[in-house]
Amino acid sequence: MGGRGLVPLLAFLGVMAYSLSMAVVTPALPLLQEGLHTTASGAAWALTAMTLSAAVSTPVIGRLGDLYGPRRVLLVVVVIATVGMVIAAAAWSMPVMVAGRVLAGVGGGVFPLAYTIIREVFPPERTASAVGLMSSMLGLGGAVSWCIAGPIIDHLGWRWLLWVPVVGLVPGLVAAWWIVPSTAPQEGAGVDWWGAVLFAGWLVAALTALTQGMDWGWASPGVIGLLGLAVLLAVCWLLVERRVADPLVDLKLMRKRGVWTANAASLLSGYALMAGGVLFPLLVQLPERSGFGFGGTATQAALLQIPASIGMTAAGMTAGLLDRRIGSRAVLLSGAVLTGVGYGFLAFEHGAMWQLYLGGTVRGIGLGFAYAAVANLVVAAVPLSETGVATGINTLIRTVGASLGTQVSAVIVAASVTSAGLPAERGFTAGFAVSGVLMAGVLVFALIAPRRAPGTRPAGRVDRGAEPVHR
Predict the structure, then answer these.
(1) At 135, which helix (H) or strand (E)?
(2) In the chain, which end has fewer C-beta atoms inside a 10 angstrom radius, N or C?
(3) Are residues 160 and 272 in the same domain?
(4) Could you tell me if 311 and 279 lie in one domain?
(5) Per-residue pLDDT for 87 more than 50?
(6) What are the TM regions of this chain, as residue ranges (predicted)?
(7) Is residue 216 part of a domain?
(8) What is the pLDDT of residues 335-382, one digit of tens each?
């Protein structure tokens, strides 16, 4: 094994660094707005730009990893992401910050590349545990960012918060160069660049409309025009993908029962994750004069997220062991039930902080199980040569669900605003209830997903010409 034994650790660190780079901006947004002399909506583009970039680049990078080997593509991706993070941390204006965050978003490709590397390096019986741990990095990145945000901002300033992910990526890049094994590229395969351009076009148009709908107005010409453009480009993309020899996304692969059920569950789970990210802070910081708000600080709202993030991480770490005993389908069922119960409890009981902690933690554990299960369902359903693009699409769909969770939850709360200018309690009740109902949909998809006998794994590792690298 030697150096190969460190490959999974490097993959975990790379995913963790990217998750952290995505999460650290949220607590820094108010100070970023002040420091770069921009508006609240302008500062929000620091998060939106990276989300859009990651959504577009993730499946494309996953496909490139399948074609040319994950090591080659991983090195390029980490270099681009690191440069972007450095630019963002040193940015002197909002346009420079956005440009840096766009480059940093390319780091989203570490997710499908990491899944491919794990599948090549791990023995089949350990793949599920590793994939579950990888999926938990999203929750861990959020927990760490909230824990370190306060002390770093208070003592060093908000820019230092943006330097933290760089500290993890630079040594990871050097180690990856020496340790991650090379694999032979697929012979005769090419990149569907037209498909990639059209895919990026419709996706950026659709996600921009979703993320800017609240600011521009859902019936504004800008939003309607972007949605119309997204539909047109999506139709063109589908036509191209059906005709090219090596499509960016194999549509037949996406129709596999294990893949489409996992993707549908990912969409709803992404919604459930970010719905809480909107509802909890608003409720905690709502003035007490509202009759149900807590009048809390941003720090108290951040502390509320930590137990849920830790629960999500712990669940992801144990999901692999449960997968071997009861199968990914049962793990997804468990995750859907726990998340739905957490949100259902909050829909009726949210008058005390302990209730928010309890419901939020149960929700976090459930989402940890769900995220790990959908990743394992996709990995188990596709051949090794398609792991990168399949998991990249799954990650993309989860991102779309997260965008919907943010926007729809904000609309639900905004629709309940009273004449006093404050949201009514029914807005939060409805927001929690909608998330709980959607998790019932995840239950349905889990029941439709293919069943696998506990303790067994499909053909996992296939030799693609991997050779240990000695430099």
Answers:
(1) helix 124-155
(2) C
(3) no
(4) yes
(5) yes
(6) 39-61, 73-92, 98-118, 130-153, 159-179, 191-210, 216-240, 260-282, 302-322, 329-348, 360-384, 396-422, 428-449
(7) yes
(8) 999 999 999 999 999 999 999 999 999 999 999 999 889 988 988 888
DSSP string for residues in 383-451: -GGGHHHHHHHHHHHHHHHHHHHHHHHHHHHHTTB-TTSSB-HHHHHHHHHHHHHHHHHHHHHHHHSPP
CATH assignment of the domain containing 19: 1.20.1250.20
Residues in the chain: 471
On whether residue 470 sits in a domain, the answer given is: no
3-state secondary structure 257-324: HHHHHHHHHHHHHHHHHHHHHHHHHHHHHCCHHHCCCCCCCHHHHHHHHHHHHHHHHHHHHHHHHHHH
Radius of gyration of the chain (CA): 21
Claim to verify: residue 317 and residue 220 sit in the same structural domain? no
Contacts of 427 (CB under 8 A, 6+ apart): 412, 413, 414, 415, 416, 417
Q: Can you say how many angstroms the Cα of residue 370 is from the centroid of all Cα atoms in its chain? A: 13
Q: Could you give the C-alpha distances from 11 to 170, 208, 338, in angstroms and in order?
A: 13, 30, 29
Q: How far apart are CA 282 and CA 292, in angstroms?
A: 11
Render pLDDT for 104-162 as a digit per residue (tens, 0 to 9): 988 888 878 877 777 777 777 677 777 777 776 666 666 666 667 667 776 777 788 78
Residue 185 DSSP label: P
Phi/psi for 246 (5° steps) reads -125, 80
Specify the pTM.
0.79
- How many domains is the chain built from? 3
Of 247, 268, 293, the residue at which a domain comes to its end is 247
447 and 359 assigned to the same domain: yes
Residues near 380 by Cβ (< 8 Å), separated by ≥ 6? 258, 328, 452, 457, 458
Residues 212 and 260 in one domain: no
What is each CA distance from 246 to 63, 131, 339, in whole angstroms? Answer: 10, 27, 39
Domain with 47, as residue range(s), is 1-182
Q: Report phi then psi at 187, rounded to 5.
A: -75, 135
- 196 and 293 fall within a common domain: no
- Does residue 57 share a domain with residue 122? yes
Is 460 within a domain?
Answer: no
Domain boundary among 182, 205, 236: 182
Residues 286 and 139: their CA atoms lie apart, in Å, by 25
Q: Are residues 363 and 236 in the same domain?
A: no
Residue 227 domain flag: yes
Q: In terms of C-beta distances under 8 Å and separation of at least 24 residues, what long-range contacts does 11-14 make, across chains too?
A: 11/110, 11/113, 11/114, 11/117, 11/118, 11/134, 12/114, 12/133, 12/134, 12/137, 13/168, 13/172, 14/74, 14/78, 14/110, 14/114, 14/169, 14/172, 14/176
